[in-house]
Amino acid sequence: MKKLGLSADEVLTTTRAVRKRLDFDTPVEPEVITECIEIAHQAPTGSNMQGWRWMIIDDPAKKAAIADFYRSNYYPYTQAKDRTDMDDQGARILSSSQYLAERFQDVPVMVIPLIAGRLDEGTSTFTQASAWGSLLPAVWNFMLALRERGLGSAWTTLHLPNEREVAELLDIPFDKYTQAGLFPVAYTLGTDFKLASRVPAEKFIRWNSWS
Questions:
Q1: Cα separation of 165 and 208, whole Å?
Q2: Does residue 116 fall inside a structural domain?
Q3: pLDDT tens sequence across 56-77
Q4: Taking the CB of the first residue and of the last residue of the chain, which one, N or C, has fewer CB atoms within 10 A?
Q5: CA-to-CA distance for 107 and 26, rounded, in angstroms?
Q6: What is the separation of C-alpha 30 from the centre of its chain, rounded to a whole number of angstroms?
Q7: pLDDT at 46
Q8: Which of 148, 139, 136 lies closest to 32, judged by CA?
């Protein structure tokens, strides 16, 4: 299987949220998804419980239904945002997210990671942190593995207001598993992703006291 041969630092610093550069026309082989999940499973997981599950969707009708759920939340969410103070970067992100929303059903594969347990409103911070800490590192590993293989994705969550309906569509036991996001997966148009512009780390660091 072809890899890009990136260094660890290159993979970590150039794995971007990919939307406009997803290749909707090139199929994604099931074995590539499986290999990336095998790598994802090397992430730490609380008490080695491995409560993660991965729902892979490539059925066109189910992808279309999930895309409709996504859009039903995306458009009200973005229309409610105040754009008067939006800078160039914000405008680019909005344009990119709109492009993905319009074409979500066309991605070759959708991936929904899940964690065992029902994390509803009222779940304690401790329980939530323990659960998400046992899944989200694996999800990031998955995205890094995609990058090294010339694929991309974006972490989206706007289908989650319809989590129950999506669970019913996919026969997910809603009372036993919580969905963490919805990931479009495709090969990328080109592989030359660069570092993002970020505020220097020292602006966010506190030592021993907040003040």
A1: 45
A2: yes
A3: 999 999 999 999 999 999 999 9
A4: C
A5: 9
A6: 18
A7: 84
A8: 148
Residues 186 and 24 sit within 8 Å (Cβ to Cβ): yes
Are the C-beta atoms of residues 23 and 188 closer than 8 Å to each other? yes
Domain limits for position 144? 8-80+89-194
Residue 122 CA to its chain's centroid (Å): 24
Q: DSSP assignment of 62-98, as one string?
A: HHHHHHHHHHHHHHHHHHTS--TT--HHHHHHHHHHH
Phi, psi of 152 (to 5 degrees): -140, 170
Q: What is the torsional sign of CA 138, 36, 41, 59?
A: positive
Assigned domain for 47 exists: yes
Q: In total, how many domains does the chain have?
A: 1
Contact in structure between 166 and 179 (CB atoms under 8 Å): yes
CATH of residue 116: 3.40.109.10
CA distance 14 to 148: 10
Q: SS3 for 130?
A: helix
CB atoms inside a 10 Å sphere around CB 147: 25
Whose structure tokens read 């694929």?
151
- How far apart are the C-alpha atoms of 2 and 4, rounded to whole Å? 7
Q: What's the predicted TM-score (pTM) here?
A: 0.94
Of 58, 3, 52, nearest to 28 (Cα)?
Answer: 58
Residue corresponding to tokens 């041969």: 5
Residues in the chain: 211
